[in-house]
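Structure first, sequence second, as always.
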């Protein structure tokens, strides 16, 4: 039983560590001048939703894509959110290595399951992985559009650069639609 107790504590430790994602800010937006950028958890939540929507449009497995998206930035509790400019000067540990350390004391099934998700996101070539990567970029683009609305004109570079990296037809279609909408358009039909 001591192993079960230790694995339970290790698994809960991982869950508590994931709570730090609710406090960690996305650092790239600071470079764009955003004073109070979204948290890593806020980003990851919408990436998972965007991923499920894109998966439905692309004929991929929405649950699998949402799972890939949910765990795509969990390593940032330990290495932080290194902005693209910072990656030119820093070499961070591989996400799959960080995940292995995060889960070292967790229940073996939990460790193996999450490790497999992260490995697939980092190295897979399935439609689900492609869609998950597009979801990450599309969410960043949409967030940038929201920051543009708030007056952060430097967000334009993030909008344009992430939009240019989209690969699936559905992500490009949604990006085109987002370019001509405001962040409150969703409620307009109910205000009439």
């Amino acid at each position: 039983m001591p192993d079960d107790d230790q694995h339970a504590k290790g698994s809960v430790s991982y869950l508590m560590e994931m709570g730090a994602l609710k406090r960690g800010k996305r650092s790239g937006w600071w470079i764009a001048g955003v004073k109070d950028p979204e948290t890593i958890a806020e980003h990851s939540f919408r990436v998972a939703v965007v991923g499920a929507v894109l998966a439905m449009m692309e004929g991929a497995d929405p649950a699998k894509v949402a799972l890939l998206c949910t765990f795509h930035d969990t390593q940032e509790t330990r290495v932080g959110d290194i902005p693209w400019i910072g990656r030119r000067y820093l070499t961070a540990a591989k996400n799959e290595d960080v995940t292995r350390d995060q889960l070292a004391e967790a229940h073996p099934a939990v460790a193996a399951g999450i490790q497999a998700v992260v490995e697939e996101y980092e190295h897979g070539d399935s439609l689900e992985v492609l869609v998950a990567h597009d979801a990450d970029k599309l969410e960043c683009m949409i967030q940038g559009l929201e920051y543009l609305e708030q007056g952060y004109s430097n967000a334009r570079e993030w909008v344009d650069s992430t939009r240019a990296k989209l690969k699936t037809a559905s992500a490009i279609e949604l990006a085109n639609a987002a370019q001509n909408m405001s962040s409150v358009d969703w409620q307009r039909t109910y205000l009439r």
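Margin note: The chain has a mean pLDDT of 94.
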